[in-house]
Specification:
2 domains; 24% strand; Peroxisomal Thiolase, Chain A, domain 1; alpha+beta; 15 helices; 36% helix; 10-stranded mixed beta sheet
């Protein structure tokens, strides 16, 4: 029995900052980012957006597109590292928001859960859900990847920012992709990138030696949540290469494949924290598979490797260069980008295989493969990712700064036919911090 993705949808910001604009305002040579890293645009959430609205809108599109009754969905599992609450999962927000349209209680029998492991969390949610469908082939489930990859202003991660959500309908006998049972894994507990709880004493904050009650906090120590991570770019890149390479060869061992395994894949889909990450790092695997002894820099510039990149990796980069890092959604963004590329080029890819090389800081990699199904075109032609990118609205640098600092109060692009963040409760002590959403 085949199990996999039957359909897929995406919701991304409608606004973007040109990378050239960011580079010029940061005194960075634009070509260093554009030609060196493959970056073109950086998507950024509008005032009414957050990871919950992205997720809810992606699921809403999926349900409407397939005319699915909510009662048919057995579970909604979310992969994210941008949760808005330390207890209440985004998945539970999604169902309550959708019930504004479908009716109270329509998702009451739907299992909901968030999974977190940096950028690989949605892959974990996917594989857990694939196993669920293998055991329950008559049921349907949805996996969502939603994140806001936000970095500090003037940091080395600033130009990789991006946001959005991808929702995938998981079923038996899928129309789009059927996944392998085997999964190669490599994991190691490290601090290459993380989001710690930052704690300060009240004395530091209030400039007092007393310990007064402050916003309901009795403890002398106060924890703050910060969206931006702590990271070591160079070390994180080393972890990325080590984990992905180890997981790749673990998968090769599990599946008893001979020769260069990647040659069995029509395309290679990797987590893209920036557009050219895959082409820059896959060279490690390429060299080992082909038993090459030259330096990786030499191999990366060789005609054979560049031909491989243009065929196997480039299609996944198209959308990444125009959106930025989507954290858990990055590898699935590459999937949609690749499928739309093949649709535009009228490629015959039915029954061909795609290799997935996922990565999450902290750190873990998973490698697996999927077979493209005969009905893939009928699914992909409804997504319209490239059209969405062409219709997005450019913002200036001042607007970007105001959005980043959360000083912007009015939406840049007025929302229409979508769920938006309405308000966050600040008065009622019982519901302090509760987030409320509505359909516009």
């Amino acid at each position: 029995m085949k199990v996999g993705i039957d359909n897929i949808s995406i919701d991304i910001p409608k606004i973007y900052l040109p990378i050239q604009t960011l580079a010029l305002n940061r005194n960075i040579e634009p070509d260093k980012l554009i030609k060196g890293l493959g970056l073109q645009k950086m998507s950024f959430p509008d005032v009414h957006n957050d990871v919950v609205t992205f997720a809810a809108n992606a699921v809403f599109k999926l349900l409407k597109q397939e005319e699915i009754n909510p009662a048919e969905i057995a579970r909604i599992y979310v992969g994210t590292e941008s949760a808005v609450d330390s207890s209440k999962p985004i998945a539970s927000y999604i169902t309550s928001i959708l019930e504004q349209h479908y009716g109270i209680g329509t998702f009451r029998k739907c299992d909901t859960l968030d999974m977190t492991f940096a950028c690989i969390g949605a892959v974990d949610a996917l594989q857990t859900t694939l196993d669920f469908i293998r055991l329950n082939p008559t049921k349907k489930a949805i996996v969502v990847a939603t994140d806001n990859a936000k970095y500090d202003l003037n940091s080395t991660g600033e130009y990789t920012q991006g946001a959005g959500a991808i929702a995938m309908l998981i079923t038996a006998n899928p129309r789009l992709l059927a996944f392998s049972n085997e999964v190669g894994i490599s994991a190691d507990g490290v601090f290459d990138f993380f989001k710690p709880r930052r704690s300060f004493s009240k004395n530091e904050i209030l400039n007092t030696s007393d310990n007064p009650e402050w916003f309901g906090i009795l403890e002398n120590e106060v924890s703050f949540y910060k969206e931006q991570p702590v990271f070591d770019g160079q070390y994180s890149n080393e972890c990325y290469i080590n984990r992905t390479s180890e997981a790749y060869f673990h998968y090769k061992e599990l599946t008893n494949q001979n020769g260069a395994m990647y040659q069995n894949w029509e395309n290679v889909l990797m987590h893209l924290p920036y557009c050219f990450q895959a082409r820059r790092t896959f060279v490690e695997i390429y060299a080992k598979e082909n038993q090459l002894t030259d330096e990786n820099k030499v191999i990366a510039k060789s005609e054979a490797y560049l031909d491989f990149v243009n065929k196997a990796i480039f299609p996944s980069e198209i959308a990444s260069g125009q959106i930025g890092n989507m954290y858990t959604g990055s590898i699935f963004l590459g999937l949609i980008s690749t499928l739309e590329y093949h649709l535009q080029n009228e490629s015959e890819i039915s029954e061909k295989k795609m290799g997935f090389i996922a990565y999450g800081s902290g750190s873990k990699s998973k490698v697996f493969e999927a077979e493209i199904q005969p009905e893939w075109k009928s699914v992909v032609e409804k997504i319209g990712l490239f059209e969405k990118l062409n219709n997005s609205t450019e913002i200036d640098f001042g607007t970007y700064i105001a959005l980043h600092k959360k000083e912007q109060k009015q939406s840049v692009v007025a929302p229409k036919n979508e769920f938006v963040l309405d308000y966050i409760e600040k008065e009622n002590p019982v519901l302090l911090g509760a987030r409320y959403y509505k359909l516009v």
